[in-house]
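User: Hello, can you help with two protein structures?

Assistant: Certainly.
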Amino acid sequence: MVVDGAVVGEIGVGLLVLVCAERGDSEVQADKLLAKLLKLRIFSDEAGKMNRSVQDVGGGLLIVSQFTLAADTSGGNRPSFTQAAAPDEGRRLYDYFVERARAAHPVVQTGQFAADMKVQLVNDGPVTIPLRTT
């Protein structure tokens, strides 16, 4: 992940985690999301079955704030982001999530909150799974 021409975070094998705080979210949702993420069995075992977690494979977490995940496109062609948490609350919950992730997992890298980030991804599989806590 690059911000202003400088690499600010990168991992090898692991998960790119795009995180969006929405209005009404709290630490409860952040804790549920992290617990699910760390145990989610989406990496292949010896038989090629998705049976191993990021913890099992010793993978990293690259955590990126992404308020645009709260986009509502039902009202026309311009997305509305009214469901996204206010910027201060979004930053607080993002920082909380990252802090908890670092306490629970050995390899955690991050983006830069509210920055124009250039994110590169090699999606092995590809496997892309949206997680919601509600």
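That covers the first. Now for the second protein you mentioned:
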Amino acid sequence: MRVVPTAIPDVLVVEPRVFGDQRGFFFESWNRSALREAGLDADFVQDNHSRSARGVLRGLHYQIRHPQGKLVRVVAGEVFDVAVDLRRGSPTFGRHVAITLSAENRKMLWVPPGFAHGFCVTSESADFLYKTTDYWHQEHERTLLWSDPALGIAWPVDGAPLVAAKDAAGTPLATAELYD
């Protein structure tokens, strides 16, 4: 596996080594030893799978207590994936990393604890898988407003995306609960 830093050094792109021929392909989507050697040392406690249609935007979610690290990937379709730094003392506070994840490029993104995360579907549908380093705690879940101009995220959507009520009512960065 190859681990590539992004503009925010703690957010990493994981590019698996893919072995393919006329029969199909094979790759390791998680190898604790290989990723530990590359600087990603995480203990995962939960795997999640979501399916969404084109134009669906999920996020930007985070847990103010029990923060989750997430290793995210797409196994069918394509998404525009975003991680926003919410660590108050960080030199990259308020900045984001955005990347296209797809079944075709097989890239994964490591979103460390302390970040809000979200994605929008750019294909007909997408199956999105992610591992988390802590369990979901509804009482600690927060939503950063996906459309906050202060974030400067250029979401690739035509018109208004389809969002859940909690995502539509997200909190702008200026008044959001943050990590110390």
